[in-house]
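Here we describe the complex-level prediction in full. Unlike the single-chain runs in Section 2.1, the two entities below were treated as one system.
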Amino acid sequence: MTAYSHVDPKTNLVLRIHFFWRILFALLAAGGVVYIWGGAADTALWQKILVSIVLTFASIFSVIGAVQISRRNHSGRMISLVLDYLAFVVCFVLALNTGEAFIGIDAFGETFPKGIPYLGITIVGYFLSIMDEYLPQKKKTSENSLKVVGRWVMLAGFVVFLLQVEAINGILYFLGKLAQPMGIISVAGALILGVSIWSMMRDSTSQALHAKTDHEQVINGWLFLSPNLLGFLIFFAGPLILSFYFSFTDSDAFNTPHWIGFANYAKILNVRFAWLSSPDQFAREVVDIKVYDEVGRFLIGNGGILFAAADKFFWLALRNTLTFVLFAVPLSVIPALVLSNVLNSKLPGMKFYRAIYFMPSIAAVVGISLVWQWLYNATVGYINYFITVGIEFWNNLFHLAVVDPKIQWVSDEKTALLSIILIAAWQTMGFNTVLFLAGLQNIPGELYEAATVDGAGAWDKFWSITLPMLAPTTFYVVSTTTIQAMQVFEQVFILMNPPEGPNNSTITLVLYLYRSGFQNFQQGYASAIAWVLFIVIFGLTLIQFQRQRQSSIYES
Amino acid sequence: MKIQSYRFLQFLNKFIVYFVLTFFALVMIFPFAYMIATSFKIPADTFRYPPRMLPRDPETIVVDGYDEPLPLYYVDVNGAQKEYALAKSNIKVGTYAPADNLTSTFERYLTEVKPTGGATNQQKVEVNGKQEKLFDVEVDGQIIPMILISQTTVGEFIDPQNPENKVYQNVRLSEPVESIGWHPENYTEIVELNNMARALTNTALVTILVVVGQLLTSVVGGYAFARLRFPGRDTVFVFYLGTIMIPFVMLIVPLYQLMVLIGWTDRLAALIIPWIFTAYGTFLMRQHFITFPKEIEEAALLDGASRLQILREILIPASVPALATQATFTFLYAWNSFFWPLVIINVGNEKNHVLTLALNVLRGRASDTPNLILAGAAIAIIPPLIVFILGQRFFVESVASSGVKG
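The structure predicted for the assembly as a whole is:
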């Protein structure tokens, strides 16, 4: 009761308005639910359910907020702020969308080239304005003028940039588009919600609702996190859950998906093993070829085992991907380990080499694959040329007669995957080297000194100090390289024609996912492949983690 | 004596170190060097075997009596190598021999030799059980009927100083006179052929917006995680951490459907908006802000500064290296991404292509001109390399110091 007496009548009025606003908010949200199930027919079921859940919660919480405000509880303020803020964000985004701000980026792309030089001027201006910090102390007298000049250059550059990209036209277009019912409603909504938030944030209101300084931190915390969190929920967490749902449907991206239970997974995992009585027995004699296709056969003596699957491409893709990982990861990690140890010697020029090794990992995979495509060229490519020259050299040196293999790198089924492996290893080696180098530099030098005193050689030191101390780095490097390698796609897509390579020798899981989801538009099936891929990746990482833990237990 | 051998060992050690390092450096550099060199070549030069690094031009010379400049070749004149101009190619030469003595051969131009007995009623002779046509070949003023053994094509090479001096030899086996010649016009050609200019500016636009947007959201988010106490913070943070390892391909199908739903397929917005909210970037910024001393901030709070002011005026200016590092990473990621644009932007919609997509189209369109393809690849690869060279200090150091969270 005492709280009431301290509050001035104006604030009391504000709080009373807030009470009614919360009730109105709840009614609007409830009305939205009714509209969705009654009026708007052409939306998918899951969207309807999702939106009505959100609106129902908003409605209920709004009522609770109203009650708490009337009781002058601080939770009423919190609920009110959260609801108003979320609704504000929705209205804001709706307004942007109605004004075609997002789609308008395409139009911006049209005029952007003309503005680029002025954007460059703006950046130069920025560097001018911060330059004084890097100038030697003596020249500090010119500091202010430089800063001012820089700021002016920046401003002028940006204004000309805006003129060049026709920003005024864009804004006028935006406003024109906004002047339709949807736009006006969302702008009005955003304004009302903004006023509501502002009045709730005022000192007099927050005092009337018994706010403490801790509450300000809570509000600020969620407010600062909110842009990232909302985007993360919409563009990451939401789709992740959706992906799980799709993997149980026959979704094709355009029609309403139907729930089909585990059928996608069942198709992927539907395999048969059959005994072969002779190595070249036909598959149709041992399995039902209406359902199963032969994936491969393992010959044992006079007979063998036939491996057949309902979806042979998935298993071929799994085989290729695992083969790729099995070779590409060691080929990238082991040289990196060696190189980092060599780089760790404190000789001059090491930073230069380190920078050079880093270069491949920053270049676009697409561009790199095109370059290697010509290096691999069987008749005029450099790789075959080096092989030819090397073989001639050894033949002359030792009077041998080794035949030049003239490898048809990408068009031979035996070497197609190898050529992808080499590119990937080449491209990731430098990054791994730098990571290993960081790990090496964290190993305390005393360990080596003690070992030297004990008379250990370089080799002993490597095995008994460097490798065990480097185990966490090795785990990190191997697992990230493996995760990356499991998703190999771009090199295959660019280098191979067709991408699945000669006789499906380079079809990988992600390539197959792409083919199923975006060429055949079996998106439910593609989602199931994605989850199987995730489980494989997760399993591999878990195995590596276990091994790392075990080995570190042994070492300690 | 002992010291000397120790010194020798040390020298050997250094030599091996630099040898290994240089070898690998060459392996790393070579494809880039090849790309740049080839992008300045003429098409014929790219298909030459054995391959050469530097681009070359065939040299030509203007000779009196010929309208066009003639290509120069090395020819053998009486044992000496000379530079002659190719005046006429495709001259057909036949090797003829009498039917009774196939070893004594004579070379004559096909045009100079007439069939024995006329074209309509050519005489024939049986050689080794086969009927062979007879030709009238003039040897020292005498006409002898001979058979045609083989036929080649030669070119007429003339001495540029004295066009009367002529040499005939096979053109394809002759080595042309060449000089180093760069062809930067490959780049203008590729830009015109394949809409590369638009793709380049689109990529720049997308990259700039993604970098700026991602920095904004992850700086404020990272600050909230690092410095503000609020219920639910740690739960959300663990949630963020858990998703870092989830591969992007998991999202591609549902994200595509989301874009279909909100009408962003084929739009640049689809390449930008979903990528400015990142768990990993927020995590990195949080790790960075948490190292800051709290005292400065508390003092500023006492002075009445708001959280946003503290962030803007104290923390951000002090975090330029960390921000630069993250900006560089994001730049590379956005610039080089291919899978998502491939899925979301239609092949036909060239207006909205980014560089990687343009390269994918180019691959099919210019498959027989490696010089153009590699010029395109260079356009896509060189800007990130420049950014890398400029930001190398921040970038490699930060991978080396904070990249490992093992």
